[in-house]
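Async update (no meeting this week)

Hi team, since we skipped the sync, here's where things stand on the single-chain job. The sequence we agreed to prioritize is pasted below, unchanged from the tracker. I ran it this morning and attached the output directly underneath so nobody has to dig for it. Comments welcome in thread, and please keep replies under the output.
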Amino acid sequence: MSKLPNISTSIFTVMSKMAAQYNAINLSQGFPNFPVDERLTDIVANLAKENVHQYTPMSGYMPLLLKIATLINNSYGRTVQPETDLLITAGATQAIFTTITALVKNNDEVIILDPSYDCYEAPVLLCNANPVRVPLNDDYTPNWKIIEKACTSKTKMIIINNPHNPTGKILTESDFESLEILLEKYPDIILLSDEVYEYITFEEKHISAHTRKKLLNRCVMVSSFGKSFHVTGWKIGYLTAPEYLMKEIKKVHQFLVFSVNSICQVAISEYLDIISVVEIGKLYQEKRDYFKQLLKGSRFKLMPCEGTYFQVVSYAAISNENDVDFCKRLIIQHGVAAIPISTFYADGKDLKLIRFCFAKDNATLEEAAKRLCAI
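Output:
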């Protein structure tokens, strides 16, 4: 008997497989296709001959932990203790899985805001807990009244994703004020803040949970070097949490992966000495703006993109098909792969919206846009 009977193959796997089958341009899965910074690959090449190939400490390579603490302080003005408040993880998905597994118990409830990334629900179910899916407004802003109504004495955790995948929306000061008021009423709720795109934001300033003093003692924050430095295959992320929560998270982590890729940790530690996180946002803002310009002649309507490297578009002026069928036809007939937004909702809500990943080189974006503008 399956422990996850209602969970099937990921939509990302489905669309990427179809993209390969039909030789389509894959703008579905969220990974960059352009070269990694040569400064980083040079560091890795040099390290390959060094003695950095054995287990690192369970919490992570200490020089990297120290530099993360500095990064958090420089970015958000928050002081964290590397020994107790930080944990290097095998990517953000493992960080999320480990956190939920460690902190959520049988029959607890976890609030997930839809549309939501697909890795949140499975660990909740595996804990024999109950995911409570609460929809965002159609403009992807949170409806705090509805969210509060979903809270009960059984609510153990609320998961937020900021900047938000798949929509590119970021939370405002008002959103955090509403969240803080809600959590004051429910002092036992833990906040899991998925901020893997924290350094990929544009005109609007990203507000991190790191900056909210009222939340710090009850919040676990998820970050990703894979996303920030476009090395997604390295699977290097990290968690920040108060010591009393981190102790529980580390208990699971040590038996799940124990320690994380040593050479990648050392490489990122050295890379942090020469990289500015400001460069990351500028790079992707240029790509967002270029892709937007390329699609100007198309019949797709582009939704606002405030962060991440995803562009949501409406195809309502093109077809009345449901979004899954439209995406499949887009691959087969037009050679471009996208992700249907309905798959991020528990109820499959279909607003005729799909998601493109613009973390691609210019030649890829240009050819994809050429095909999309011909529809």
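Quick observations from my side:
The mean pLDDT is 96.
The first helix runs from residue 11 to 21.
Reply here if anything looks off.
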